[in-house]
Amino acid sequence: MSENIEKVKCLIIGSGPAGYTAALYAARAELYPVVYQGMQPGGQLTITTEVENFPGYPDGTQGTAMMEDMKKQVERFGTDIRWGEIVDLDVSERPFKAKTDEGKIILAETVIISTGASAKWLGMPSEQEYNGYGVSACATCDGYFYKGKVVAVVGGGDTAAEEATYLAKLVKKVYLIHRRDELRASKAMQKRVFKTENIEMVWDSAPKEIIGKKEGFSKAVTGVIVENLKTGEERTIDIDGFFVAIGHKPNSDMFKGKLDMDETGYLITRPDSTATNVPGIFAAGDIQDKTFRQAVTAAGTGCMAALEAERFLADQDD
Ligand code: NDP
Question: Across the strands, what pairs with 174?
Fold first, then answer.
């Protein structure tokens, strides 16, 4: 076989909690998995700061440290973890043909897709500057750090409504900033938002700039300048945390027209399974989960994907 073509039993695309957990189980089942880490090695957890809700870390840990730990754990069982990306996947026949960004061809008997999703951001430079220092796209991950404080949530869909009501239980006050005068969220979620006393709606408005303070290496958000889109009026709201909840984008562009996905691009898996519509291709983590999106649920589906890949190969052998 040419140097540029390699045959593997199990190819894992993506290196977040789903990909690494799949690798851990696949390696221990002697599937000799090969993991392509993708554009953001370690996934979304590498852009959060502290993680306190992953079981097994009584004192919490840093997102980057946790992903390093997962990587070390899978390396211990001989997983081949590689830099680089898979840029194309031919699913029309087995073995599936994957192409790397360096032009290498991987012929894979099974594929586990764990390419995750990316939070959508507003695009303000200050949003990037304070990311991880008061700016977050995940209330369940970071909300606890704002206990008793004041935060703003941006967005008007179910995610924003859910994040706002979740945060309202922890913080003193939530400003829910939305660009229109009605929410897109389901009626049930809207009802929950409107009856929560410490949520104040900021209608018809868009954040213009996040304000913060810097001292040495530390940074913290102190406020947000908001523009009323109907009147053009600007005001500053004092806040300690700024949560962006304007949706997520699953990283599934490469699979369009090849694997079944819903209208928003999430891969569709069979109920109680990680199997996609193509036998031998499995999907785990945020690429197929728009509801829970937690590290621990991603890890759980990663485990399922590896077990299903193992069973699939055993069935083929039979
Ligand atoms: P949505 O696309 O439904 O909503 C995004 C919201 O963000 C909209 O209100 C939109 O405003 C606003 N928005 C988008 N871009 C910008 C921008 N640049 N500036 C300001 N505001 C912006 O995304 P969600 O993540 O809320 O939901 C995605 C899917 O997941 C939905 O189908 C939802 O029902 C589902 N979901 C279900 C949950 C549940 O059932 N528990 C929980 C979370 C999500 P506008 O309304 O003006 O377009």
Answer: 151, 199
Tens digits of residue pLDDT in 205-245: 999 999 999 988 899 999 999 999 999 999 999 999 999 99
CA distance 318 to 316: 5
Chain-centre distance for alpha carbon 31 = 26
| Ligand 1 atom, smallest distance to 158 CA | 26
Quick: pLDDT tens for 19-29.
Answer: 999 999 999 99
In order of 14, 88, 255, the CA distances from 92 in angstroms are 21, 12, 12
Mutate to test the pocket of ligand 1, among 242, 246, 293 (most ligand atoms within 8 A of CB): 246
CB atoms < 10 A from the CB of 13, how many?
28
Q: Which residues contact 232 (CB under 8 A, 6 or more apart)?
A: none
CA distance readout (Å), 78 to 35, 72, 128, 307, 310? 11, 10, 37, 17, 17
**Element containing residue 242 per DSSP (H, E):** strand 241-244
Whole-Å CA distances, 99 to 85, 116, 275: 9, 19, 22
Q: For 49-119, where are the E strands, in sequence order?
A: 50-51, 61-62, 80-82, 86-90, 96-100, 105-113, 117-119
CA–CA distance, 313 with 306 (Å, rounded to integer): 11
Cite the active site residues.
Answer: 138, 141-142
CB 115 within 8 A of CB 37: no
